[in-house]
Amino acid sequence: MRTHKIAAIPGDGIGQEVIPAGLAVLRALTERAGDFRLDVTEFPWGSDYYRANGRMMPEDGLDQLKRFDAIYFGAVGDPHLPDDLTLWGLRLAICQGFDQFANIRPTRVLPGLESPLRGLAPGAIDWVIVRENSEGEYAGHGGRAHRGHAIEVATETSIFTRAGVERIMRAAFAIAASRPRKLLTVVTKSNAQRHGMVFWDEVAAKVAEDFPEVRWEKELVDAMAARMVRKPAGIDTVVATNLHADILSDLAGALAGSLGVAPTANLDPTRQYPSMFEPIHGSAFDIMGQGVANPIATFWTACMMLEHLGEGAGARRLMRAIEAATAQGVLTADLGGTARMDDVTEAVIAAIRGDNAPD
Ligand code: NAD
Ligand code: MN
């Protein structure tokens, strides 16, 4: 039987609720599928680990993770610790250490869910946003001088390398090529940002030569935000920088109904290292411990993980079960429902067990 080794890192807050729910759903799925298994190891890393050990994960954490086929991640963030410490100490340490340069964010309005956009036709939002995940505006370059003085100055420099832009562009064109509409929108701000963003447009044009089947277009990020609201049906695959895609994908998540359903994958497409799969949302201290977190984003990212592991049939079966649960109206409070997390989990598990489709 095919076996995949999974490292599960629930992390903080509702991460400790939604990851166990995701693992329960995956257990039901592997039982139902019968042709593959997941060998799961849980790691208790995060803010509690920090309080006990002075670090978010052990010094050899990345070495421990290297031997896994994928990482299933909850969230980090603790009300009593600085966000940059928790984020850089665990989540970003993994993204950067494993060169997970492609952050993939699918967006769809699931059956039974309502977009805040009025009169949206079913299927009008079916997007994949590809976010550059390793450089750009979040490269951490910059500094401050003359602190506290009238002449104080702070800089925040974006870094774009040819290798970095080319590899994210290739990943985005490949995704666009794999989708029915074969349309890629390259988002920049090349009218105002004349160096890095003009460079993005140039690299896009060059990479496009290798993907003649893909139609591609350029769009400025501000216009793109408006277009996502005004003409969502004309959008398919989108590639943008770390900052631009960060903002656009939160907008996308909201347009799909809630951040609680938005999944993401941090991929190393070269497969040298394990990729990491997580919900987009954070640790949500405001609702932690109440059993009301929406687990759908965590289930959906498990579909992405299965796809990445070559278990396409399992991924489709899980997606059908998620959609069956949402279509039945088993919805948590963020989606206007009254269901608790366990109700959603049980509905998805029941749908998996009752699924008689051939694959
Ligand atoms: P958040 O995503 O945790 O929460 C934002 C709002 O959405 C909250 O009102 C929350 O209750 C709600 N929400 C989020 N996920 C939900 C779910 N699954 N079901 C129902 N409601 C949900 O963002 P925040 O409040 O800005 O940040 C809280 C902490 O999480 C901070 O420490 C932040 O740094 C961290 N954070 C971590 C990640 C990550 O680990 N990838 C991402 C974002 C924020
Ligand atoms: Mn964000």
UniProtKB/TrEMBL annotation:
For this protein, the record's InterPro entries field holds: ICDH/IPMDH, IsoCit/isopropylmalate_DH_CS, IsoPropMal-DH-like_dom, TTC_DH
Q: Look up the EC number in the record and give it.
A: 1.1.1.83, 1.1.1.93, 4.1.1.73
**SMART domains in the record, alphabetically?**
Iso_dh
What protein name does the entry list?
Answer: D-malate dehydrogenase [decarboxylating]
Protein's pathway: Carbohydrate acid metabolism; tartrate degradation; 2-hydroxy-3-oxosuccinate from meso-tartrate: step 1/1; Carbohydrate acid metabolism; tartrate degradation; 2-hydroxy-3-oxosuccinate from L-tartrate: step 1/1; Carbohydrate acid metabolism; tartrate degradation; D-glycerate from L-tartrate: step 1/1
PANTHER family per UniProt: D-MALATE DEHYDROGENASE [DECARBOXYLATING]
Where is the Isopropylmalate dehydrogenase-like domain positioned along the sequence?
A: 5-348
Q: Which cofactor does it need?
A: Mn(2+); K(+); Mg(2+)
Report keywords, A-Z.
Answer: Lyase, Manganese, Metal-binding, NAD, Oxidoreductase
**Protease: present as a keyword of the record?**
no
- Function of the protein: Has multiple catalytic activities. Apart from catalyzing the oxidation of (+)-tartrate to oxaloglycolate, also converts meso-tartrate to D-glycerate and catalyzes the oxidative decarboxylation of D-malate to pyruvate.
A GO molecular-function annotation = magnesium ion binding
State the similarity comment: Belongs to the isocitrate and isopropylmalate dehydrogenases family.
Output the NCBIfam families linked to this UniProt entry: TTC
Reaction catalysed?
(R)-malate + NAD(+) = pyruvate + CO2 + NADH; (2R,3R)-tartrate + NAD(+) = 2-hydroxy-3-oxosuccinate + NADH + H(+); (2R,3S)-tartrate + NAD(+) = 2-hydroxy-3-oxosuccinate + NADH + H(+); tartrate + NAD(+) = 2-hydroxy-3-oxosuccinate + NADH + H(+)
Lineage at the top is:
Bacteria, Pseudomonadati, Pseudomonadota, Alphaproteobacteria, Acetobacterales
Q: Which domain of life is it from?
A: Bacteria
